[in-house]
Amino acid sequence: MDDVLLAVGTRKGLFLGRRRSGPDWDFTGPHFPMQAVYSVGIDTRRSGTPRLLAGADSSHWGPSVFRSDDLGESWHEPARPAVRFPEGTDTSLERVWQLHPAGPAAPDVVYAGTQPGALFRSEDGGETFEFVRSLWDHPQRPEWGAGFGGQAVHTVVTDPRDADAVTVAVSSGGVYRSADGGASWAPSNSGLRAEFLPDQYPEFGQCVHKIAQDATDPDRLYLQNHGGVYRSDDRGAHWQEIGKGLPADFGFAIAAHPRRGGVAYLFPVSDGSDRYPPEYRCRVFRTQDAGASWEERSAGLPGEPHYGVVLRDALRTDDADPVGVYFGNRNGEVYASADEGESWRQIARYLPDVLCVRAAVIG
Question: What sign for the dihedral angle of Cα 236, 124, 45, 1?
């Protein structure tokens, strides 16, 4: 089996798992104890050991971005904060929600999405970041709302063919796209419903929860909304609903297979006052036809009742063969599938609330 690294960010630290040859996992941690880790990046574009990036929040020292070039054996925090709002913005960093190494077209670029809702760009692998002022200065930004978790740029998607094509999701601002490397931005929400607004199809203001990019067609995107699961076949210019057949069209997380086009995974959540898995059942749903149909994949997952909710960044795939699929929940449980979702096993439990999951083959 492939040598896989699994990073699990929780409300009280980061845990790193390693599966070297067999089915068993070895975990270390917590790294950054008593700090909430909302974002992790595993940058495998470098030759040799991948670089790990972690966005950690200290209630005493505030948020920061740490990096490790030895798989978490040691961590470096720059003397000057890597992500900081410039003077004149009258704001300060509350949290780093996303650390996204861009594709092969931009080998040293890393994006950071933050709360308050802003975007930062690094050209040195995440050591330093520059403020993307064009998004901050967008005339619609002052009208963005704040989701239950706060106002944040929580998703960044880059086109592997085009370094200038960048898509971000804002809670609650919606989807914005740039075709010129971030020099300008346009809302991209046609067809997305905002069920909580009087005008349910506004130009912007949707509460998008997560976006994933198709493996073989980068123009195809999958989106989990605050009510509704969607697909776009034109880089987000237009969206269509694909939630038919799911037990609920609400949820937070969605992930795509890294090699098979049309394959995506999600974990539905009931849209109501309880916000638990539908019927209190722990289930992952997979599509193999770009959302035309969905199939439950729950072999090995706990039976009902089960109350663990999967947050927006806590469902992920790796790039192994066969592909591994992972999710963590607010019960502090982590589940893994080594066969593309056909079956599951619990690989960690009793952790703090799981906030984000990342996985990659490293050897």
Answer: negative
